Amino acid sequence: MIVLASQSGSRRAMLEAASISFRAQPAHVDERVLEAALGDAVPAEIALALAVAKAGNVSRETPGEIVLGSDSLVSCGGRRFDKPTSRENAAEHLRFFSGKVMELHSAAALVRDGEVLWAEPAVAELRVAELSEAFIAEYLDAEWPAVAGCVGVFRIEARGVQLFESIDGDYFTILGMPLLKVQAALRNLGVLAR
User: Fold this and answer.
1) Where are the alpha helices (DSSP H) in 4-150?
2) Is residue 98 part of a domain?
3) Residue of 123, 122, 144, 140 lying closest to 131 (CA atoms)
4) Is 194 part of a structural domain of the chain?
5) Model pLDDT for residues 130-140, shown as the tens digit of each residue
């Protein structure tokens, strides 16, 4: 059994569907403070640092256990985006994404007793369709506030798929955790059978 350092429903659902035994314990990490400290780091580095910080935080409270931390962020047009702070902020994000390629950076880390056993980033590129004001309003009528906690203002497993013309990347990475890489690392650590 591992410990998932997250409250994310999608990350829990991924582990459950893959039959990976876990219990969830939220990490109390101030993401904005850590992001500010990283300064001009590239998005993959930020996602990886946040995943390691979350796993490390919970690792201090769970001696001897392997802790999985994960984080995702979106970059588009040279800007980094966090979860929307309001419905209007979500609409602003969608207007900016319209017709552009969004990069979704997801990272995961496995930590035990403060030691990083494994950590790796992944990226998916999502080409956003041209979004009209009418579409954005209708989309948020249907999806808000469910997408309030979603970087990129979408749930790919729901109506959010309508935002995109094409996707290049792993489905699990888009859901918020590079699950295939996590499984491989857990196999290498003897947590999952080969």
Assistant:
1) 9-17, 31-38, 43-59, 87-97, 133-143
2) yes
3) 140
4) no
5) 999 999 999 99
Q: Do the domain assignments include residue 193?
A: no
Write down the pLDDT at residue 107. 97
Pairing verdict, β 115-128 and 164-168 = antiparallel
Say how far apart CA 123 and CA 178 lie, in whole Å: 9
Answer whether residue 82 shows pLDDT above 90. Answer: no
Q: Is it the case that residue 123 has pLDDT exceeding 90?
A: yes
How many domains does the chain divide into?
Answer: 1
How many Cβ atoms sit within 10 Å of the Cβ of residue 64? 7
**Which CATH number does the domain housing residue 127 bear?**
3.90.950.10
Q: Which domain holds residue 158?
A: 2-188
Calpha distance 1→83 (Å, rounded):
30
Distance, CA of 166 to CA of 7 (rounded, Å): 29
Position 47 pLDDT exceeds 90: yes
DSSP secondary structure, 135-167, as one string: HHHHHHHHHTTGGGG-TTS--TTTGGGGGEEEE
CA distance 144 to 20: 31
CA angle, residues 54, 60, 61, in degrees to nearest 5: 100
Output the CA–CA distances (angstroms, integers) from residue 154 to 7, 90, 168, in the order listed: 18, 10, 16
CA distance 94 to 103: 14
Give the active site residues: 71
